[in-house]
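Following up on my earlier message about magnesium ion. Here are the inputs again, as you asked, copied directly from the submission form:
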Amino acid sequence: MSLIRFNDVSKRFALKGRTQDALSGVSLGIARGEVFGIIGPSGSGKSTLVRLINRLETPTRGTVEVNGVDIGKLKAAQLSAVRHKLGMIFQAFGLLSSKTARQNVLFALKLAQKSLTDADHQRVDDLLARVGLSDHADKYPSQLSGGQKQRVAIARALANAPDILLCDEPTSALDPEATQGVLDLLAELNRDLGLTVVIVTHEMDVVRQICDCVAVLEEGRLAEVGTVAQVLFDPVSDAARALGKHLLP
Ligand code: ADP
Ligand code: MG
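Thanks, got it. Here's what our run produced:
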């Protein structure tokens, strides 16, 4: 059974009297414990797809299931419980600039529970150690590099021990070295914690490095989905061929 399932999902936005089909008839499954890539050019619907998983967007048609539950049918309290089990990180990090690294991670715990125990404070320090930031815990975002900021965001996303980490272009604002560090960290978290990682990217190189399976989007349609080996070395769609061209011998 898939941990995440899209059943014939379409999303249409209406903006100033015009409509935009961000996704059209997408069906796919993401298995527990895998690193799943979503790739496509700008505007192909990648962010919309990933935002549907934690109901930051709702489908115009079709259903999205997490753990066998149609998340469109959840009441507010149930939805917030599901959301605590879904971490998310973004290209622009989304850290609170007036809080230190440690306070940013603590804040995620405070949102999810009424009071904090000593064990919670210890957990935050453990998370900061896990992402390699023990020496930077008391720094503000402005005092951290891009790669370090994304590590804080990852620690914060893990604060409530999620099953799934959603990553929307997590390395697009980073230089090659910081990109490598963040990808290595995501692969390690997948391996050590069994975390299911969904990663949006426009770079096939990111997919090649850490994904098990990948979905290729083109103008809101699923052009292709399969293992990375299939999609990279034996693509059936022009979209996948175009994205992987520079990686072939
Ligand atoms: P990607 O992440 O692949 O660049 P998006 O999912 O952000 O693509 O967007 C897909 C399409 O939907 C684009 O044409 C975009 O302009 C449109 N879109 C996304 N969000 C909105 C919104 N809130 N209102 C109107 N149009 C939107
Ligand atoms: Mg996007």
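One observation from looking it over: The radius of gyration is 18 Å. Hope that helps, and feel free to reply on this thread.
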